[in-house]
C-alpha cells in the first residue's frame, strides 16, 4: 500500500455552467438555468499511470479535463496535486499547474498562427525561467523538437506550413517544455487521419516510457484509448458510470452503457455483422437530467428502482467500479448480437457470437 | 467489375481539377467504378484522397469551389451526367440522385422550419400540393425515426440534436425516392452510438426503397459493417476495388493493408502507423502514388500507369506487385 | 516515429517568396496604395517648398483666374493659388486625420480587448455604455462636443477620440470574444502565462487586424468629417488652407470659377482611394495563413 498521496486526486468535483445571455439574471430575481457538466466525479491518478476517459458528447469529459488543468474553476469539490489542493489562479496553483499540462483536440487552433515554432517554444522556456542564456535556449528548443520527432530545421516556420499531425507534435513539445508530470490529452487524435493517429499515439507511449508521465487520455474512440490506458473511466451525462482496468472493461463491461458503447463501434470485420441497434434514443436534456439513474431513459434493463434512486459508484468486483443497480446483470446476448454475414455458399449457416 | 448493364451509376476515367491562381490540383485522377442496384457501395480513404471531390463531381455540386470536370463520363441510366447541362442536372438532383453531407449543422437552412425544407423538394420534383406535401413529409420523418413527427414538422433545425438533424437530412434526400443516395461522411460528426443508429437506418432504407447508396467514409469499420462493395482511394486514384468480404479477407494493395494494420486492434496490441505523409496533389509522385511510402516498392513502381487491373472475381487492384504480397 | 529519422518535411509547401518584392507583386491593392501614399507624402513634404506662392497671402489682382501657365489650378476669389493651397491643406488634413484615427484606435482597441477578455459584468456594463453612445449619430455628438468646447484643433482631436473609440472597441471586442476560446489561448493559460502576456502577445496581435483595416477606412471618413465640419464653420477656421474650407469658400463661385471647389474635392477623392487600397492591401497582408 502506497502511503504517499496520489499524484492527482479529484474529489466530488462538480462543474456547472449558467445558460448564457443573462449576466444580471440574479439581480432581477431570476434563477439561472444550470448545465451540470460534471456531477460528483472522484478519481485518482498515480505517477506514470494512464487513465482513459471516454464518453460521447455531453458526458462532461472535456469539462472535467479543463477543471483539472485549471481552465475552469470548479463549482464544488477539490482537486489535489500530491495531496495539496489546487485552487483558482493563485501562485500556488500556478506553480503546481505547471506540472499538469494539456494537449487540445484541434491541431489547427492549438498554435498561435503568428508565432514561429521557435518563438512559441522559446516563450514557454523564458516565462518559466527554465533555461538561461540564448544558446542554451536554442539548444533546448532543438532538443524538444527532436523528442517529438520533428527536425529542428523547421523551427523557423509558422504553424500553417505544418500538417495536422506535425502541429500536434509541436503542441506536445510545447507542453513538454515545462517538464510536466501529468498531461491531460483532450481528444488529441480525433481530428487526425487514422494512419497519423497511430503515429501520435505511439509518440505518447514513447514519451510516457521516457519521462514517466501520467496521462488522462480523453477520447470518444474506445479502441484508441484501450491501447494506451491502464484504467478506463466511462462517463455519461456528467458522471463516471464505470471505472475499470482496460482489459477487464473490454472483456466484460459491467455497465449497460459501456456495453452499448462497445457494441456500437463498427468493427472492421465484415464476417461479423451486427443487425441490432446498440442503443436507442437520444441523450436526455443536460439542463434537466432524469431523476434516478441518468441512463435509465435508454437502458435496456432499467427497472423501477433505476428511475427513482441514483446508484452510487461502487466496487462490485475487485477494482471494478460501476454506477448501476444491476451491474454485471446484463446477459451477454441482449445488446451484443453478432450474426455471421451469409456467404455465397452457406446462406443457411448462421452463427451467434456474443 | 459489375457489368454496366446491372449498374445504376458507371463512372469511367473521371478527372476533376481544382484551379486557383498559380496552383492546379488534380483531385480526381482517372477514377472508374460501378454502383449496382440496391447496393451499398463504400468509397473509403483518408482526408485529401479525392473521395469527396469524386462524389461532388457526380452532381457537380462544388459549393462555389473552383472545380471542374476535365474528362471522363458519369453514366446514369445511360446518360452522361458530366456532359449534361445545368438545367437538366438540377432536375436529376434530389429527384433521382439524392445527397447528404457531413455536417448536419450547416446543411440545413436555420431560418426555415424543417418540415418546409422537406416539403420543398416534394413540391418541386413531385408536384405535390401543400397539404399532400406536408403529409408526405410527416410520413418521411416517421420513416427516418424522428419521434412525434407531426409536432416536429414545425420545428427549426436548432431544436434538433446532431443525430436528429442527420435524420432530417436523410428525409429530405429521400423525399423524391431517389434511386441513388450519395452520403458524404454522414456519420463522421456524430457520436458512435448515434452513428450506429444512422447506419442501421441507411441499411434499412436501402432495402425498403431498393435504393443504392454511395457511402463515402474514412472509417474502415463502417465500411466493413455496412457495405457490399468497396473502393479504396489514395491521392486522387482508386487503388483497390472489391467486394467487402474479399477486401478484408485478403487485400491486394499495400496501402489498403497498411491502413488495416494501422487500426487499433481488438486485442490492444501496438498500432502500426504508415510512415510518411500523403503527397501534395499539386506535385504528385510519378507512377504509383503510394510508392514513396510502400515497403514493397521497386523501380518499376515509379513508372507504373494508373490502370486498375481486375485480378480476381470482382477484385481490382492498382498495384503491379500484388502477386508478391503475402 | 521518433526512432526513425526526424520528420523534416513540412507537409504544406512553405510560402515561396517571402521577400517583400514577391509580396508586393501578389498584393496589388497594397502596391497601388503604397504608390499613391508615397506620392501624397512627397507632395505634402516637398510641395510647399517648390511652390513660388504661399497659401495665405492675398493678391486681389490675381483673383479668379482659371487654370493657366502661372497658376496651374487657377486662383480663388482672394487671388491665392489653388494648387499651393491644396498642397498646404494636405498637410493639415492628413495630420488631423492621422491623429483623429490613431487616438481612438489605441483607446478603443485597448478597452475593447480588455472588456472582451475579462467578460462578465464589467464587459456587460461597458458594452451598454458603448451601445448608448452608439445610438447617437456621429455628427450630432461631434458637433455637440465641438460646439460646446469651441472650434480649434485640440478640441477636434478630443471630440473625435471621445466619439470614435467605440467603433474600434466593438470591432476588437468581437474578435477577442472569439479568440479567447481559441485553443492556443487556452494553452497559454494552462502553460501559466499571465493574463497580460496573453492579451498582449496572443490575443491582440490576432484581434487587431480588422481594427487596422477599419482604421484605414476611418482615415477617409475622418477627412470627410473634418472637411464637413470646416465646411460648416465648426472646424478649421479661415484663412487656413483646408480642403473642406476651400470647397465652402468656392461655393459661391461654382458656376463661374468652378476650379476653386472642384480641385479640393478631387484631392479628397484621391486620398480616399489611397487609403481604401491600403486598407484592402493590409487586410490581405495581415491575414494569417492556414
Description:
The complex is a heterotrimer of chains A (354), B (326) and C (290). Chain A has helices at 61-69, 91-97, 117-127, 134-147, 164-176, 194-211, 222-228, 246-251, 256-264, 304-308; strands spanning 8-18, 34-45, 50-54, 76-81, 84-85, 100-103, 182-186, 214-219, 231-236, 239-245, 272-274, 314-317, 320-322, 338-340, 352-353. By secondary structure, chain A is α/β, with parallel strands linked by helices. Chain A has a single domain (8-99, 180-341), classed as Rossmann fold (3-Layer(aba) Sandwich), CATH 3.40.50. The two termini of chain A are 38 Å apart. By secondary structure, chain B is of the alpha/beta class. Chain B has one domain (4-108, 179-324): P-loop containing nucleotide triphosphate hydrolases (Rossmann fold, 3-Layer(aba) Sandwich). In chain B, strands 6-7-8-3-9-10-12-11 form an eight-stranded mixed β-sheet, sandwiched between helices. The longest helix of chain B has 18 residues, at 192-209. Chain C has 290 residues and is mostly helical. Chain C has helices at 20-26, 28-50, 82-118, 120-134, 138-149, 153-179, 183-190, 195-207, 209-231, 243-249, 259-286. Chain C is flat, with a radius of gyration of 24 Å. The interface between A and B is large, with 44 and 43 residues.
Q: Structural class of the helices, strands and pairings of chain B?
A: alpha/beta
Order of helices and strands of chain C: HHHHHHHHHHH
Instruction: Look at the structure and name the CATH superfamily of the domain at 90-239 and 272-286 in chain C.
Output: MetI-like
Radius of gyration of chain C: 24 Å
CATH topological fold name of chain B: Rossmann fold
Cα distance, first to last residue of chain B? 24 Å
Topology:
The complex is a heterotrimer of chains A (354), B (326) and C (290).
Chain A: E1 8-18, E2 34-45, E3 50-54, H1 61-69, E4 76-81, E5 84-85, H2 91-97, E6 100-103, H3 117-127, H4 134-147, H5 164-176, E7 182-186, H6 194-211, E8 214-219, H7 222-228, E9 231-236, E10 239-245, H8 246-251, H9 256-264, E11 272-274, H10 304-308, E12 314-317, E13 320-322, E14 338-340, E15 352-353
Parallel strand pairs in A: 3-8, 3-9, 6-7, 7-8
Antiparallel strand pairs in A: 1-2, 1-4, 4-5, 9-10, 10-13, 11-14, 12-13, 14-15
Chain B: E1 7-20, E2 23-36, E3 40-44, H1 51-59, E4 67-76, E5 79-80, H2 86-92, E6 97-100, H3 104-107, H4 114-126, H5 130-143, H6 149-152, H7 162-174, E7 180-184, H8 192-209, E8 212-217, H9 220-226, E9 229-234, E10 237-243, H10 244-249, H11 254-261, E11 309-312, E12 315-317
Parallel strand pairs in B: 3-8, 3-9, 6-7, 7-8
Antiparallel strand pairs in B: 1-2, 1-4, 4-5, 9-10, 10-12, 11-12
Chain C: H1 20-26, H2 28-50, H3 82-118, H4 120-134, H5 138-149, H6 153-179, H7 183-190, H8 195-207, H9 209-231, H10 243-249, H11 259-286
Amino acid at each position: 500500500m502506497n502511503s504517499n498521496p496520489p499524484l492527482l486526486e479529484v474529489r466530488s468535483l462538480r462543474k456547472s455552467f449558467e445558460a448564457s445571455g443573462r449576466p444580471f439574471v440574479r439581480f432581477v430575481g431570476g434563477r439561472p438555468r444550470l448545465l451540470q457538466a460534471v456531477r460528483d466525479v472522484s478519481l485518482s491518478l498515480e505517477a506514470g499511470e494512464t487513465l482513459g476517459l471516454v464518453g460521447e458528447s455531453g458526458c462532461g469529459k472535456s469539462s472535467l479535463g479543463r477543471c483539472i488543468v485549471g481552465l475552469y474553476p470548479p463549482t464544488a469539490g477539490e482537486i489535489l496535486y500530491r495531496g495539496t489542493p489546487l485552487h483558482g489562479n493563485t501562485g500556488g496553483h500556478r506553480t503546481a499547474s505547471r506540472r499538469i499540462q494539456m494537449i487540445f483536440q484541434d491541431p489547427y487552433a492549438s498554435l498561435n498562427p503568428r508565432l514561429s515554432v521557435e518563438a512559441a517554444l522559446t516563450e514557454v522556456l523564458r516565462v518559466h525561467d527554465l533555461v538561461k542564456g540564448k544558446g542554451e535556449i536554442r539548444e533546448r528548443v532543438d532538443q524538444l523538437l527532436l523528442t517529438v520527432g520533428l527536425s529542428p530545421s523547421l523551427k523557423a516556420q509558422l504553424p500553417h506550413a505544418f500538417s495536422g499531425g506535425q502541429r500536434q507534435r509541436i503542441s506536445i513539445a510545447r507542453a513538454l517544455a515545462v517538464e510536466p508530470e501529468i498531461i491531460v490529452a483532450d481528444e488529441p487524435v480525433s481530428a487526425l487521419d487514422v494512419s497519423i493517429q497511430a503515429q501520435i499515439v505511439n509518440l505518447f507511449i514513447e514519451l510516457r516510457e521516457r519521462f514517466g508521465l501520467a496521462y488522462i487520455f480523453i477520447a470518444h474512440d474506445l479502441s484508441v484509448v484501450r491501447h494506451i490506458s491502464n484504467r478506463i473511466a466511462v462517463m455519461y451525462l456528467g458522471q463516471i458510470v464505470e471505472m475499470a482496468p482496460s482489459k477487464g472493461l473490454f472483456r466484460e463491461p459491467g455497465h449497460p452503457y459501456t456495453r452499448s458503447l462497445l457494441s456500437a463501434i463498427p468493427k472492421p470485420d465484415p464476417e461479423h455483422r451486427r443487425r441490432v441497434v446498440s442503443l436507442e434514443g437520444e441523450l436526455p436534456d443536460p439542463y434537466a437530467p432524469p431523476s434516478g439513474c441518468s441512463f435509465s431513459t435508454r437502458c435496456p434493463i432499467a427497472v423501477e428502482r433505476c428511475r427513482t434512486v441514483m446508484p452510487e459508484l461502487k466496487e462490485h468486483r475487485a477494482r471494478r467500479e460501476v454506477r448501476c443497480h444491476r451491474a454485471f446483470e446484463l446477459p451477454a446476448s441482449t445488446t451484443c448480437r453478432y450474426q455471421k454475414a451469409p456467404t455465397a455458399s452457406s446462406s443457411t449457416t448462421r452463427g451467434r457470437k456474443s | 467489375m459489375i457489368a454496366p448493364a446491372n449498374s445504376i451509376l458507371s463512372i469511367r476515367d473521371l478527372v476533376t481539377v481544382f484551379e486557383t491562381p498559380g496552383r492546379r490540383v488534380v483531385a480526381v485522377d482517372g477514377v472508374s467504378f460501378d454502383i449496382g442496384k440496391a447496393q451499398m457501395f463504400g468509397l473509403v480513404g483518408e482526408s485529401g484522397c479525392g473521395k469527396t471531390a469524386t462524389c461532388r463531381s457526380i452532381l457537380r455540386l462544388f459549393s462555389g469551389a473552383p472545380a471542374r470536370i476535365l474528362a471522363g463520363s458519369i453514366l446514369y441510366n445511360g446518360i452522361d451526367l458530366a456532359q449534361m447541362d445545368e438545367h437538366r442536372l438540377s432536375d436529376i438532383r434530389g429527384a433521382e440522385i439524392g445527397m447528404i453531407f457531413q455536417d448536419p449543422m450547416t446543411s440545413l437552412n436555420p431560418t426555415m422550419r424543417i418540415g418546409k425544407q422537406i416539403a420543398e423538394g416534394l413540391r418541386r420534383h413531385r408536384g405535390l400540393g401543400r397539404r399532400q406535401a406536408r403529409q408526405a413529409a410527416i410520413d418521411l420523418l416517421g420513416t427516418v425515426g424522428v419521434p412525434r413527427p407531426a409536432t416536429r414538422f414545425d420545428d427549426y433545425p436548432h431544436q434538433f440534436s446532431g443525430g436528429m438533424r442527420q435524420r432530417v437530412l436523410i428525409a429530405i434526400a429521400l423525399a423524391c425516392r431517389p434511386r441513388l443516395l450519395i452520403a458524404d461522411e454522414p456519420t463522421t460528426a456524430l457520436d458512435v452510438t448515434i452513428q450506429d443508429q444512422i447506419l442501421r437506418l441507411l441499411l434499412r432504407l436501402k432495402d425498403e426503397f431498393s435504393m443504392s447508396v454511395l457511402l463515402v467514409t474514412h472509417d474502415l469499420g463502417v465500411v466493413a459493417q455496412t457495405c457490399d462493395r468497396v473502393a479504396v482511394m489514395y491521392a486522387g486514384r482508386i487503388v483497390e476495388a472489391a467486394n467487402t468480404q474479399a477486401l478484408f479477407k485478403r487485400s491486394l494493395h499495400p496501402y489498403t493493408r497498411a491502413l488495416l494494420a494501422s487500426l487499433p486492434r481488438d486485442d490492444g496490441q501496438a498500432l502500426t502507423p504508415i510512415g510518411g505523409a500523403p503527397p501534395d496533389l499539386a506535385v504528385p509522385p510519378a507512377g504509383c502514388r503510394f510508392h514513396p511510402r510502400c515497403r514493397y516498392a521497386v523501380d518499376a513502381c515509379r513508372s507504373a500507369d494508373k490502370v486498375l487491373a481486375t485480378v480476381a472475381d470482382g477484385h481490382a487492384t492498382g498495384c503491379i506487385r500484388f502477386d508478391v504480397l503475402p | 516515429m521518433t526512432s526513425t529519422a526526424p520528420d523534416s518535411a513540412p507537409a504544406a509547401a512553405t510560402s515561396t517568396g517571402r521577400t517583400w518584392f514577391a509580396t508586393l507583386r501578389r498584393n496589388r491593392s497594397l502596391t497601388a496604395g503604397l504608390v499613391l501614399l508615397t506620392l501624397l507624402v512627397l507632395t505634402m513634404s516637398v510641395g510647399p517648398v517648390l511652390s513660388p506662392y504661399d497659401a495665405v497671402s492675398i493678391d486681389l489682382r490675381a483673383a479668379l483666374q482659371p487654370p493657366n501657365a502661372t497658376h496651374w489650378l487657377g486662383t480663388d476669389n482672394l487671388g491665392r493659388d489653388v494648387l499651393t493651397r491644396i498642397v498646404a491643406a494636405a498637410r493639415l488634413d492628413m495630420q488631423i486625420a492621422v491623429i483623429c484615427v490613431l487616438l481612438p484606435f489605441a483607446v478603443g482597441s485597448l478597452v475593447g480587448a480588455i472588456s472582451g477578455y475579462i467578460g462578465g459584468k464589467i464587459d456587460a456594463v461597458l458594452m451598454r455604455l458603448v451601445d448608448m453612445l452608439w445610438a447617437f449619430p456621429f455628427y450630432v455628438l461631434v458637433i455637440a462636443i465641438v460646439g460646446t468646447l469651441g472650434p480649434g484643433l485640440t478640441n477636434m482631436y478630443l471630440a473625435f477620440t471621445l466619439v470614435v473609440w467605440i467603433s474600434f472597441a466593438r470591432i476588437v471586442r468581437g474578435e477577442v470574444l472569439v479568440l479567447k476560446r481559441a485553443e492556443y489561448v487556452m494553452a497559454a493559460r494552462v502553460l501559466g502565462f499571465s493574463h497580460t502576456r496573453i492579451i498582449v502577445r496572443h490575443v491582440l496581435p490576432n484581434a487587431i487586424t480588422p481594427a487596422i483595416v477599419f482604421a484605414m477606412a476611418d482615415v477617409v471618413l475622418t477627412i470627410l468629417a473634418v472637411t464637413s465640419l470646416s465646411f460648416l464653420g465648426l472646424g478649421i477656421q479661415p484663412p487656413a488652407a483646408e480642403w473642406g474650407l476651400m470647397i465652402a469658400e468656392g461655393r459661391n463661385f461654382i458656376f463661374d470659377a468652378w476650379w476653386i471647389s472642384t480641385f479640393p474635392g478631387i484631392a479628397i477623392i484621391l486620398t480616399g482611394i489611397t487609403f481604401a487600397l491600403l486598407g484592402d492591401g493590409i487586410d490581405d497582408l495581415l491575414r494569417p495563413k492556414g
